[in-house]
Design a protein that fits this description.
Blueprint lengths: L1 H21 L7 E3 L4 E3 L18 E3 L20 E3 L21 E3 L24 E3 L24 E3 L21 E3 L7 E2 L10 E3 L7 E2 L12 E3 L18 E3 L18 E3 L7 E2 L12 E3 L7 E2 L12 E3 L21 E3 L18 E3 L21 E3 L19 E3 L21 E3 L19 E3 L5 E2 L5 H13 L8 E3 L8 H10 L5 H69 L4 H4 L5 H6 L8 H16 L3 H17 L5 H20 L7 H9 L2
Parallel strand pairs: 2-3, 3-4, 4-5, 5-6, 6-7, 7-8, 8-10, 9-11, 10-12, 12-13, 13-14, 14-16, 15-17, 16-18, 18-19, 19-20, 20-21, 21-22, 22-23, 23-24, 25-26
Antiparallel strand pairs: 1-2
Helix pairs in contact: 7-9
The structure holds 2-acetamido-2-deoxy-beta-D-glucopyranose (NAG) (8 copies).
Length: about 700
């Protein structure tokens, strides 16, 4: 028990020590124990502040005024991350990073390095674990034409950021010093042309977006034997691209100026983005050079025509995006050879009808916003696996009976012009569950039975005619709200007096009124009212009656009492009369008067009353009331005193008087004992006591 307690104490002591050490932190910095970091950002520092924990792992001294890497940074031997961005560094010499053996990540972006020669070739030689270096936003400009050595040498570096460094040329050998480089970000540099074969064995990702590239030599990337990801997006003047690479898997050429699908040899390419170019025509076998491609994005171009063999040979293609183009017709066989195609986006084109596309594997077809006017009963029959079809925002006014799509489960027909449905419309879509018919022109005559096994139907924003007395209408309402549990509000468009009202709002009175004709109910109500009134009256009357009887009984009782009292009085009076007559007759003294009062000595020797009897209390009370209520009390007392004095002088006057005085004295001591604050001035009391 004690051992555990000691253990806990010891542990908390250690913890305290450790925390004190970790949280050792200069006032201007913010330190965190969780990742052993110190953040001394934005302090106009030119020297390292004193008091940073010496075993700090992450140090952020960005947004200060350092002109070089601070010399004593090597105090922090365990430093893994150093952020020196937004400072005024002008050079990085061979000893700048000396002692930072553990450094993994170095951020030197937004400094004042203005030439590759500002960075010593051996600058990174002291950091054997450095894997990420950010030199972005330093105006390093072109790599020197004649280089004695490589601009950067590091065997550990994997990621290098050179974004917006005003680099205007890229030489074949520049990456040879960084033998392990995997990712190179060169975006926003004014490269204009790539005229060399860039060499690197390990490079995996190369970002050359927004580089103003206009020409790229066909074999520019062939020496990049591990290159998988090439980003050339937003080189707005790049018209042509042709390249050979066996390793490339991802090619982004979106928002360039391509006018045709580039003929390249990229056998292992899986994703290709040509979005936002100027492609107009996709001729036959355009993609022959990308046989393994899975994803093709051709959206946001100006494609008008697709050759029937445009996608010929793309055996692995899974998704083709042709949205936002100007295609007006597609041959049904265009995608016939794409045996794995499961998603096709044709949204925002100018197709006037849903042709009978033959795509065996297709599961998701987007034909929204296409100005389609017509769909036939067998339009979808050649896409037997179709599960999702989007026909939203088209001009379709009629869905043919028995439109066949065995696997279809999601159908979006929203914002078309559909005005009618019947019990055959969806009968051939056995798996349809989710149907959007919002924003159409349905008016009335729709029955729940038309929707078969559909569990989610959207019917809002149609031209609903609210015929509250129609059974079909009410049935539809009940079905939509109670079985489908639709959350969107259905509103009436007509008749005019109900336009804009929700269904239940419009038909409330008819649907939710109580059963039976109204006059009957009124009759029942008034009858109930009358009964209620009568009942209330009865209650009031009976209550009044009860009160009345009670009062009479009381009066009678009082009368009787008074009578009895009077009777008693009369009797007493008679008795008195009789007594007086008798005493007159006998003329004898009252027997009580015959009793001799005690002598003075006897009276003194009598036991003193130490409990105030009720009679005495009465006298005391009366005395007290005398004390308190009369302002001329002292004068009365003096009188009393004089009287008593006189009686003493008269020497043992009548015993009755002595008794009364004794009782008075008792009363007085009582007063003095119990009611000090009500005591009249003490002099008087003393006088009374001394008077004995
Ligand atoms: C680093 O050295 C400078 C002088 O060169 C000194 O002012 C500063 O306090 C030192 N900082 C630390 C943390 O040793
Ligand atoms: C380095 O500091 C700058 C400026 O404080 C910040 O914007 C940037 O995100 C930091 N870099 C990293 C890699 O944390
Ligand atoms: C590159 O940085 C400069 C400022 O150093 C800026 O003016 C220019 O717009 C940047 N270039 C791009 C492509 O962002
Ligand atoms: C690229 O494809 C070729 C066959 O065309 C294959 O031999 C090679 O291994 C693939 N390379 C990669 C990196 O997948
Ligand atoms: C089809 O393309 C349009 C426009 O580019 C886009 O909004 C939509 O999400 C795409 N559809 C699918 C199913 O990806
Ligand atoms: C159908 O396309 C429209 C317009 O592009 C979009 O708003 C809607 O979400 C799509 N519907 C489905 C079910 O994807
Ligand atoms: C469809 O409705 C009609 C009446 O309008 C009825 O004769 C027919 O049997 C219904 N068919 C099915 C399959 O419910
Ligand atoms: C139609 O409804 C579905 C869900 O039922 C939804 O995904 C789709 O976006 C809706 N379409 C529009 C145009 O809102």
């Amino acid at each position: 028990m004690l051992g555990t307690f000691n253990g806990v104490l010891y542990l908390s002591f250690i913890l305290h020590l450790v925390q004190a050490k970790i949280l050792e932190c200069p006032k201007i910095c913010i330190c965190k124990a969780s990742d052993v970091s110190a953040n001394c950002r934005n302090n106009e520092l030119t020297e390292l502040p004193l008091g940073i924990y010496s075993e700090v792992l992450r140090l952020d001294i960005s947004q200060n005024n350092f002109e070089s890497v601070p010399k004593n940074i090597s105090t922090y031997k365990l430093l893994r991350y150093l952020n020196l961005s937004h400072n005024k560094l002008t050079y990085l010499d061979s000893t700048s990073l000396q002692g930072l053996d553990a450094l993994e990540e170095l951020v030197l972006s937004h400094n004042l390095l203005t030439d590759w020669r500002d960075i010593h070739t051996d600058a990174l030689s002291h950091t054997p674990l450095l894997f990420e270096l950010d030199l972005s936003f330093n105006s390093l400009r072109g790599f020197p034409d004649i280089i004695e050595d490589y601009p950067l040498k590091s065997d550990s570096l994997e990621t290098l950021y050179l974004i917006n460094c005003s680099i205007s040329n890229l030489l074949g050998d520049v990456l040879l010093g960084t033998t392990n480089l995997k990712r190179l970000f060169l975006s926003q540099n004014p490269l204009i042309a790539l005229n060399t074969q860039i060499k690197s064995k390990k490079l995996h990702t190369l970002d050359l977006s927004q580089c103003n590239l206009q020409r790229i030599q066909p074999d520019a990337f062939t020496e990049l034997t591990s290159l998988e990801e090439l980003i050339l997006a937003r080189n707005y003047q790049l018209k042509k691209f042709s390249s050979r690479s066996n390793s490339l898997k991802f090619l982004d050429l979106s928002h360039c100026n391509l006018e045709s699908v580039p003929a390249s040899s990229l056998p292992n390419l899986t994703k290709v983005y040509f979005k936002g170019n100027h492609l107009r025509h996709i001729p036959a076998n355009s993609f022959a050079s990308f046989p393994s491609v899975h994803v093709v994005d051709l959206s946001n171009n100006a494609i008008m025509k697709l050759d029937v063999k445009a996608f010929h040979g793309l055996k692995s293609v899974e998704s083709i995006d042709l949205s936002v183009n100007t295609i007006s017709a597609i041959d049904p066989e265009t995608f016939m050879s794409n045996m794995k195609l499961h998603k096709l986006n044709l949204s925002r084109n100018y197709l006037s009808k849903v042709g009978q596309l033959i795509i065996e594997s297709l599961r998701w077809l987007d034909l929204s916003v296409c100005e389609i006017q017509e769909i036939n009963r067998d339009s979808l029959i050649m896409m037997p696996k179709l599960q999702k079809l989007n026909l939203s925002r088209n001009l379709i006014s009629h869905i043919p009976n028995r439109l066949q799509a065995d696997e279809l489960s999601v159908l979006d027909f929203s914002m078309c012009r559909i005005y009618t449905l019947n019990n055959l419309t969806f009968i051939s879509m056995g798996r349809l569950r989710n149907l959007n018919l919002s924003g159409n022109r349905l008016v009335s005559g729709i029955k729940p039975s038309f929707f078969h096994r559909i569990t989610d139907v959207k019917l809002h924003d149609n031209s609903w005619f609210c015929d509250c007395n129609s059974n079909d209408f009410r049935e539809l309402y009940t079905w939509v709200y109670y079985e489908i549990s639709s959350t969107s509000t259905l509103r009436c468009r007509s008749p005019e007096n109900l336009a804009g009202f929700s269904w239940e709002g419009a038909c409330q009175e008819v649907w939710f009124a109580p059963e039976g004709p109204r006059s009957d109910t009124m009759w029942v109500y008034s009858l109930l009212l009358v009964i209620l009134m009568t009942f209330l009256c009865c209650i009031v009357i009976s209550i009044r009656h009860v009160y009345h009887r009670k009062a009479t009984r009381q009066r009678e009782a009082q009368e009787q009492e008074r009578e009895e009292a009077r009777e008693r009085l009369r009797r007493i009076h008679q008795r008195n009369l009789q007594y007086s007559r008798e005493s007159m007759n006998r003329n004898a003294p009252d027997p009580r008067e015959l009793q001799t009062p005690p002598s003075y000595a006897e009276a003194v020797s009598m036991p003193r009353l130490n409990v105030s009897c009720s009679s005495l209390a009465g006298s005391h009370r009366s005395l007290h009331s005398l004390h308190s209520s009369h302002p001329d009390i002292s004068s009365r007392r003096t009188k009393l005193r004089r009287k008593r004095r006189r009686s003493r002088h008269e020497n043992k006057a009548s015993v009755s008087e002595t008794q009364s005085v004794a009782s008075l004295s008792h009363a007085n001591t009582d007063v003095s004992d119990s009611e000090d604050e009500l005591r009249p001035n003490t002099e008087n009391r003393n006088v009374i006591e001394s008077s004995f």
